[in-house]
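User: Please go through the entry that follows and flag anything odd:
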Amino acid sequence: MSKVETISPETTVLNLLAGRWVSQAISAAAVLGISDVLTENSTMSLPELAEATDCDSNMLKRLMAILVGEGIYFYEPSTERYANTNLGRTLATEGNLRHLAEFLGSPNQVSPWAALAQCIRSGESAFKVQHGQDLYPWLDNQPQDASLYDQAIDQFTLRIAQALSMAYDFGSAQKVMDVGGGLGTTLAILLAKWPHLQGTLIDREQVIRRAIPKFRDSQLADRCCFEATDFFENLPQNGDIYILKHILHNWNKQDAVSILKHCRKVVATDGRLLVIEGILPPGTDRNFARLMDLQMMMLFGKGGARTKQEFKSLFSLAGWKLLHTTYPLDEFSRLLIGKPV
């Protein structure tokens, strides 16, 4: 009878701890532009890849060994050449995840994880413990980090916005308000898909200043307005649709209800609220929404992901009825539709 090999608890935990090393390797690949180089060339030898990325060949070989093992890149031993894979292409500039991978591996995002235990004890965000400010005020004074953040969120947003433009019928709407809409990627895609729409991008003044150039020279310029405001204090009135994309998970219950109430106060009589969030599933199985919840706890403290029942409660407290259907927009994001009551 053959022996059945078992993996020790220590080995299992060590492999889990090594996940941090893998994620940093992926981030390094994004920073170095490896996927871009391999996209431009069908296959490359190590010396060619090292020269193209301006890397030390021995160091690069060690990095590539990890990334090949994870399926990010492919290596053919017989020819000693590397090639891209579908996973690696997501880290190219034209992919969906390069800037997000760069951002998540950047020093300002890595260092707060060292304060996670302290954050869990105190209830403060680990980001604030580490940097002395909440994320958004900190970004206002760090233009390079703010630019990378904008690019990362833009790439994360792109697929969601495209899915939203097809999943929801905007045919009867006229005015769409994108609350906390960042650089306006979602709004731009909706206006392009639905030519009759007029849009308003709503965010903090510093963000609006970064967003305006994106629209200034486009064909959408005459159909988009900009509102620099605090969405806890003031929102433009009589919008047919108010969009909150990955906003509520930044805030605790009281603040989330306050945001929803402000939207309810100004929405048109037959208007709708479109909330895009990850939804926590029942149980404790590994799930991207649950992992994202930990990321939000690190960044924002007392916000977080919620169950569908918790969203239903938030909507009700703020004067909205959550319609029973939730629409998947990607592997993580769900569309929740609110009707004023």
Notes: The first strand starts at residue 44 and ends at 45. The CA atoms of residues 288 and 331 lie 8 Å apart. The radius of gyration is 22 Å. The chain is about 50% helix and 20% strand.
